[in-house]
Amino acid sequence: MAWSILESWGVQLLQFLTFLVIARYVDATMLGIVAMALLVGQWFQMIILSGISASLVSKGTADADLDDTAFWISAAAGALLLIATFLLADWVERTAAHQGLGMVLRWLSVANFLGALNVVPQAWLTRALLMRPLATRSTISTLVGGIVGIALAVAGYGVMALVAQNLAVAVIGTIILWAACPMRPRLRFSREKARGVLFYGRHVGVTGAANFFNANADIMVIGLALGGAATGIYTVGKRALLAANLMLARALSRVALPVFSQLKGDPPRLAKAFLKIVSATSSITTPAFVGLAIISDEFIFLLFGPRWAAAADVMRYLSLFGALQAIGIYNQSLMLAMGKPQWQTWLAGIYALVNIVTFFFAVEYGMAAVAAAFTARAYILYPLSVWPVVVLLPLGWRDYWKALGPSVVASVVMAVFLWGFRFALAGQAPIPMLLSTVIAGAAVYMVVLGLVGRTIVIDMFHFARAGGKRVSSTS
Fold first, then answer.
1. Cβ contacts of residue 80 below 8 Å, gap of 6+?
2. Quick one: pLDDT at residue 419?
3. Which residues contact 278 (CB under 8 A, 6 or more apart)?
């Protein structure tokens, strides 16, 4: 978990800094075109590759025949996507009416194919809880990709700077990953293992399809209804949320599936671990995302510049969604670990349907309305995501909400305090306002959390101390 946290923080900081610099040299339309092209890779990852990966990780133990079979399935899927993208890219460009989209799709299809080749070695390392090589691979490839992208953006290459950045990350990451993983695919294919992968993966894949629309329907609707420039602005507001969410939550959730899979034979122990990890995550993510919502104006102005000011409202609403998403990830991991992927499929399908319908009505009122609708849907339907948890584990609704209570109460108190605090400082320059808000908010949150959730503070201290020792001993 310590290595996963280091990877997540390092990679997301590098990616965000790269995005921050490149956004100052390319216009909103270019960002929008690349954001739409990247949806193909996300679709492939969430619908096809995630099912293959989950079937390997949830196995819990090594299985060479399963790994070989899964590799050839993923490689074949990647090759088919590569060919289809090259053949259909021009048609997609004409249909979407975004000039240059076809060229970007073709270049990025190479990165998608490499992603297919990487599924099995990445799952192999994750199943073995070997997070150090994964952290090394992600950090180095992201750094090299950032250098390439920034250099080309400064030199005036525009959209190709974004394309080259993604390609560099894919190529370097592939080289490092295969060098670190001892597993090598053999020319073996088991029909029995293939049926197992496809049977398990079909539920994860359908869930991935629904999750894809949950995560990206807003960009798709805005791209089609409002155009590339609006999509670029929306992407800037959403990118800040993605960076924060991946830094604060994905590091822990990446470890959740293999850990939950190993503990599923001991339900009481699994329930205790689940509540502890949800509580620990919420104690970090909830105040962070609430704080991002409060400082969104200064954040966008200082980091991206005044021409991206319209992204602040998008960031404000989506940050509140991020606070919920950070803990909701564990519910999905639990269902996968307990062999109930079909449950998540139904839930994700409901969310996707509601999202798409809601966005088509909200887009008429602009980007901020779409972001607000996204967040409102998440909070209204979240109890549906908690229901499988109380069914699969020996705990009740009260236990779940009790685990979240201290961080939520402390975050609400912090938000109320900061509302009055910022009102009293109205008229201050962006930098003093940002710094004073962050310092005052952090102080208030820690004081209140210490009063209402002292156990959480102690647990987080021990976790940080143990994680630091573990990283030092393996370095």
1. none
2. 92
3. 327, 330, 400, 403, 404
Of 212, 181, 215, 170, the closest CA to residue 67 belongs to 181
**262 vs 61: CA distance, rounded Å:** 9
Q: Which two tokens stand for residue 371?
A: 């972001």
pLDDT at 151: 92
Query: pLDDT tens across 183-227, in order?
Result: 888 888 888 888 877 777 676 777 677 777 777 778 778 877 777
Cα angle 411, 236, 25 (rounded to 5 degrees) comes to 140
Q: List the chain residues with pLDDT less than 50.
A: 471, 475
Check: pTM over 0.70? Answer yes or no: no
- Taken as a whole, the chain contains a residue count of 475
Work out the burial of residue 458: count CB atoms within 10 Å of its CB; fewer than 13 is exposed, 13-18 middle, 19 or more buried: exposed
Tokens of 442: 């952090």
Query: What per-residue confidence (pLDDT) applies to 299?
Result: 87
Which pair of structure tokens corresponds to residue 11? 């990679």
